[in-house]
Amino acid sequence: MIHESTTAAPLDLSARYTAAKCIAQEAANRGMDYYRRREELTVLNKSEDATDVVSVADRDLEDFIRQALTTLFPEDGLLGEERGSEGLDAQCVWVIDPIDGTACFVNGLHNWCVSIGLLVDGEPALGVIADPNHHELFHALKGQGAFVNDSPLKPHKATHVREGLVGVGTTHRPGKAHFLPFLTKLLEEGGMFFRSGSGALMTAYVAAGRLLGYHETRLYAWDCLAGIVMLNEVGGRTNDFLRGNALLEGGPFLAACPGVYEQLEAMTGNWIHEDA
Ligand code: IPD
Ligand code: CA
Ligand code: CA
Fold this sequence. Notes:
The protein has 2 domains: 13-152, Fructose-1,6-Bisphosphatase, Chain A, domain 1 (2-Layer Sandwich), CATH 3.30.540.10; 161-273, D-Maltodextrin-Binding Protein, domain 2. Helix content is 33%, strand content 26%. It is built from 8 helices and 15 strands. Residues 1-5 have low confidence and may be disordered. The structure holds D-MYO-inositol-1-phosphate and calcium ion (2 copies). One calcium ion (CA) binds at residues 58, 81, 97, 99-100, 102.
């Protein structure tokens, strides 16, 4: 007699990893088509913050990514910056920023990327960041390491902020009041700041050892989830970004190489541990 198996099929994370890399790269290539003719795009402001902008490129790329993922993995949930959420109670939830660095994109600055992360049972499990201007694909799968193209990522060995650059960012959303005190302390301790305009890329740069750390007063999950997987894989540190309701509402973010994390954490004050 044949018994029907009651065991659910194992989750195919490696298929999701392969798909995410292809889809992010294809979306980035499509993004380049828009970028080359960006002067034709109508740019809309999403809020009173002059850097909070969007164009048809962001929306079309998110539609492309969502459709590609849904075709392959119809059971998975989706959360994206431009098109919202669906199926958030699924075991796998994709977290998508079709263009991170839109203010750079519309102004002809090359610091933008496509970022796709995946949560499995609420935990960051894979992340892919495609930067077409610099021909870099950052990618990581939990337990399998983190890479830029084929090269493994490695965080900086620094033990003091004087030894390199620290990424920073803020917007006019809540949290900006903490920005200048942080910068002041960073400079007082001999550190120096860097801002690229893409939170996803700055997070990946910490995993790659290009930046010692990165602090942003308020980010959304689609800005940093893919990079968090990379940092987890290489022994970098982050604050408990996803605590509380940060998946939907965002919150303060800190990432750093192990040797300077505590120094930067002290500069942010305890407010980064407060709920979003
Ligand atoms: C923004 C970028 C920027 C950061 C903002 C984000 P967007 O994302 O990551 O670096 O300072 O907080 O909103 O709007 O370009 O996708
Ligand atoms: Ca973003
Ligand atoms: Ca975006």
